[in-house]
From TrEMBL, chains A, B, C, D:
Keywords: Copper, DNA-binding. InterPro entries: Metal_Tscrpt_repr, Metal_Tscrpt_repr_sf. Gene3D superfamilies: Metal-sensitive repressor, helix protomer (1.20.58.1000). GO terms for molecular function: DNA binding; metal ion binding. Transmembrane segments: none annotated. It holds the Pfam family Trns_repr_metal. This is DNA-binding FrmR family transcriptional regulator. GO terms for biological process: negative regulation of DNA-templated transcription. Belongs to the CsoR family. The keyword Cytoplasm does not apply. It comes from the Bacteria.
Amino acid sequence: MADETSGECCHGEQEHGHHGYIGNQAGYLRRLKLIEGQARGLQRMVEEEAYCIDILTQVSAMTKALQAVSLGLLSDHMNHCVVSAAREGDEAADAKIAEAMQAITRLVKS
Amino acid sequence: MADETSGECCHGEQEHGHHGYIGNQAGYLRRLKLIEGQARGLQRMVEEEAYCIDILTQVSAMTKALQAVSLGLLSDHMNHCVVSAAREGDEAADAKIAEAMQAITRLVKS
Amino acid sequence: MADETSGECCHGEQEHGHHGYIGNQAGYLRRLKLIEGQARGLQRMVEEEAYCIDILTQVSAMTKALQAVSLGLLSDHMNHCVVSAAREGDEAADAKIAEAMQAITRLVKS
Amino acid sequence: MADETSGECCHGEQEHGHHGYIGNQAGYLRRLKLIEGQARGLQRMVEEEAYCIDILTQVSAMTKALQAVSLGLLSDHMNHCVVSAAREGDEAADAKIAEAMQAITRLVKS
């Protein structure tokens, strides 16, 4: 969980009433619902003893769907929280970019 | 879906009654159930307007869990289907390894 | 190559006389020199018919070194060009972030 | 470095006089030479203060080239050493596949 400081960009944005991704909230919920369905489909495949490679193909499709969600969230975050921190001052900008880089590093390494 | 030919390794293993991963079937089901729960947890975070970076952290954890499932399935597949194809003859070995390499390539690029 | 527009952040920074990474220019050159050495070491291994898995281990080390350079360059870019574009206005911010997201997407998928 | 045991597949192949990749030795040397050239090109870009995003694009291209080398080496390794270990017996097969899975895991995570 982000500590109070890392959440401050959001307080700064409270005037707009939301984080970066909220404009697409319904879209993200729909995509995560589909991903949940993929996780259930994989369980069915394992129960029905599907061919290993076919299961791997579905896991790759699910990983790609998750990756697309990550990149979307990151883009929304940069367009809102990072931009607003940059305008707030050097310290706010440094903190937000350090935090975003940690998330990007996790994404790149996973 | 694998065509009949790619499924043949499995027929060859019918004597053992299963694909490579079946010895761990319950384990894979449990792990996929947890991953399904992670997908639901992400929906809750989006609904509750959690901080973007916290959502990204959870997506990375879920991607890592999926990746571990993939590597497990691949290892089981190699230890059973690939080994049994190698013993069957050069043609069977070539086909199984080409198929496994396609799955590995998708894994590496996703 | 970036077109004139994408290079404009840099013109905007000409007063500082450099891009984001230039403060670390010597460090990046040193790291890329080491990576060049790793590429030569790999050729030696192939010539001397080293064991395949040992070569793969060295390729992974080299890929990790390259990835670290990418993440460093991206961080410097965000701290300089993206922050300065955000302060310039919405249009400049949108363009820089779209461009950075393309680079991040390539990084994540490679 | 592989210990003596992990190199044994190669002794088993000494009749053919080579590891899996040796049939393509010249091809791998040529590709690694190109990759070495890419590392030098990147140094030139940093020296000439090229635009950060253009450097990142070239690093991605170089990473992709390295990844293709890895997948090629792995495929050759599976087609030769893993197949020959599978035919040698269960113990040899287990050891070679465990070793290959470690290399694949490093590839997937890098």
